[in-house]
């Protein structure tokens, strides 16, 4: 036992990037102690921070995400599309299904299950511009749900993942955020600028994943409340976080090719089984109509929605929804981007963009059409029966829907299992990325480092729940996204410069 501990210590000592690790770890420990000891003060601070950022930087989030999407679309249509993420002869490491399963499970699976029913119902009852519970509100409910879970978040992931993958597999740079700055700063990224960039992104990843874990714990508790009568209280949710964190940490220790890969495949398979059940058991024709009309409406309005800013003084709709999502996706971008980069060797640029941007967007929109469309149809036929319990507690939304469909108990247990596995895959993927970043971009980081960040994410999620629940989680995501948005802008500039050089080199070799 002592020899094993000594081996872990030596592996950690020799493998960790100390400036990055200790900076990020110090912030995390400080957050946990502050929010855990002075819970009420922390809650007030999180709420004030949320109001400040949404009031003064909302326009910036809107403009940044819109610009990133435009840049990704340009990249996909450009002559750079045939450039490979690696050497010209390299084949992909994972099958396309395993690759898609891992990137989708890491990208937004937990949030999709949490909001798939609740968000369309909420927008129908409280639409951003239309009159509540009208045909116009129904259209806005689907359009804005598609908007929040469509091209914009995945475009953010494309930029981060594509930049890291290109510079890692082609230029030999580490799997770390600092690599995105290399085309602009050169070898200076190996100094304090690179350390600061990696530390900021580690903290952002931690807060983004903690948000997802907090939402997941609330939904698991809601499921247990429905199927087993377990009390819906914060103490139970923290206990759930502890149990799942232990399982997720074990999965992280086992590595990508074992625990993370197989859990992701099981996760996505269960997700499609549940999707297929609701599609067939629900109002199928209505779901198809909502999907087709919603996609058309979304594509027709994507430009004005992308640049729309809510100027109403008495409205916090955009802050609670669009700005929260944009901050969440940006804070998740190092986690998802680096993880996708790690598993994408051998793909071409155009293939990467198509499967990371277009395919998940179509799946997400169909998910909202099936789950949200079914909920809206049942709500309309019942005179508003579903809206009240869902808006009162969004974590209950999936169970509220499934109990009105055939085999409610069986499907609620299945939904609960899906949420649990999504919880695990979000946690193990996120902590694995933090492990890589704080280990200098090592694709196989030390085991002790994996354990530390797995436990840290669970602890951060627990204290955020104690310090204010959903509002604290929203504040964490939006605030973490602010500094990371600057890195994404730099990544776009660096990508354009590096791809121009890479294309010139390939053309020279082919002469």
Query: Which regions have little confidence, pLDDT < 50, spanning 5+ residues?
Result: none
CATH architecture: Up-down Bundle
| Helix residue percentage | over 70%
Question: What fold name goes in the CATH topology slot?
Answer: Amino acid/polyamine transporter I
**Oligomer designation:** single chain
Q: What is the tally of beta strands?
A: 0
The radius of gyration over CA amounts to 22 Å
Order of helices and strands: HHHHHHHHHHHHHHHHHHH
Report strand %.
Answer: under 5%
Q: Termini, distance in Å?
A: 60 Å
Total discrete domains: 1
Helical segment tally?
19
User: How confident is the prediction overall: mean pLDDT?
Assistant: 84
Q: Helices and strands: which structural class?
A: mainly alpha
The largest β sheet comes out as: none
Considering the protein shown, what is the CATH homologous superfamily? Amino acid/polyamine transporter I
For the record, the CATH class is Mainly Alpha
Q: Using the alpha-carbon principal axes, give the shape.
A: globular
Can you describe this structure?
With 511 residues, the chain is mainly α. It has a single domain (14-509), classed as Amino acid/polyamine transporter I (Up-down Bundle), CATH 1.20.1740.10. 80% of the residues lie in helices and 0% in strands. The protein is built from 19 helices and no strands. It has helices at 2-15, 18-37, 39-77, 96-115, 118-125, 135-148, 151-169, 182-185, 192-228, 234-254, 256-281, 284-306, 317-342, 349-382, 387-392, 397-402, 408-438, 447-466, 469-509. Helix 5 (118-125) crosses helix 14 (349-382), helix 9 (192-228) packs antiparallel against helix 17 (408-438) and helix 10 (234-254) runs antiparallel to helix 18 (447-466). The longest helix is centred in the C-terminal third of the chain and has 41 residues, at 469-509. The radius of gyration is 22 Å and the shape is globular. The model has no long low-confidence stretch (mean pLDDT 84).
């Amino acid at each position: 036992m002592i020899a094993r501990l000594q081996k872990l210590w030596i592996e950690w000592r020799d493998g960790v990037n100390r400036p990055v690790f200790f900076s990020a770890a110090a912030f995390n420990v400080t957050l946990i102690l502050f929010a855990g000891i002075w819970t009420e003060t922390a809650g007030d601070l999180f709420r004030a921070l949320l109001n400040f950022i949404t009031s003064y930087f909302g326009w910036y989030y809107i403009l940044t995400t819109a610009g990133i999407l435009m840049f990704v679309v340009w990249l996909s249509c450009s002559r750079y599309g045939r450039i490979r993420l690696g050497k010209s002869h390299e084949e992909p490491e994972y099958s396309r299904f395993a690759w898609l399963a891992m990137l989708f499970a890491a990208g937004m699976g937990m949030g999709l299950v949490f909001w798939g029913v609740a968000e369309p119902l909420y927008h129908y009852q409280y639409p951003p511009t239309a009159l509540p519970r009208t045909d116009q509100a129904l259209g806005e409910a689907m359009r804005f749900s598609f908007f929040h879970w469509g091209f914009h978040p995945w475009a953010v992931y494309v930029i981060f993942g594509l930049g890291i993958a290109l510079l890692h597999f082609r230029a030999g740079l580490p799997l770390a955020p600092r690599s995105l700055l290399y085309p602009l700063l050169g070898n200076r990224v190996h100094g304090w600028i690179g350390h600061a960039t990696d530390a900021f992104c580690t903290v952002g990843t931690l807060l983004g994943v903690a948000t997802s874990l907090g939402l997941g714990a609330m939904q698991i508790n809601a499921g247990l409340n429905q199927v087993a009568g377990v009390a819906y209280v914060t103490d139970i949710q923290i206990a759930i976080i502890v149990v799942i964190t232990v399982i997720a940490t074990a999965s992280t220790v086992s590595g990508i090719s074992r625990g993370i890969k197989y859990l992701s495949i099981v996760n996505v398979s269960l997700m499609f089984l549940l999707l297929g059940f609701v599609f067939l058991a629900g109002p199928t024709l209505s779901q198809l109509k909502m999907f087709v009309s919603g996609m058309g409406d979304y594509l027709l309005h994507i430009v004005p929605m992308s640049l729309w800013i809510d100027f109403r003084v008495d409205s916090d709709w955009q802050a609670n929804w669009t700005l929260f999502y944009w901050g969440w996706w940006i804070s998740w971008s190092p986690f998802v981007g680096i993880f996708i980069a790690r598993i994408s060797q051998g793909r071409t640029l155009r293939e990467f963009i198509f499967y990371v941007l277009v395919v998940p967007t179509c799946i997400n929109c169909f998910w909202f059409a099936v789950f949200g469309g079914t909920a809206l149809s049942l709500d309309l036929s019942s005179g508003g029966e579903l809206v009240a319990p869902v808006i009162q507690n969004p974590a209950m939304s999936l169970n509220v829907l499934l109990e009105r469909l055939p085999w409610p108990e069986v499907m609620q247990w299945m939904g609960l299992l899906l949420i649990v596995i999504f919880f695990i895959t979000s946690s193990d993927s996120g902590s694995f990325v933090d492990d890589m970043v704080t280990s200098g971009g090592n694709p196989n980081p030390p085991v002790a480092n994996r354990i530390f960040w797995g436990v840290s994410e669970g602890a951060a999620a627990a204290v955020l729940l104690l310090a204010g629940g959903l509002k604290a989680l929203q504040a964490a995501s939006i605030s973490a996204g602010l500094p990371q948005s600057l890195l994404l802008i730099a990544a776009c500039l660096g990508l354009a410069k590096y791809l121009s050089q890479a294309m010139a080199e390939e053309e020279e070799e082919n002469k």
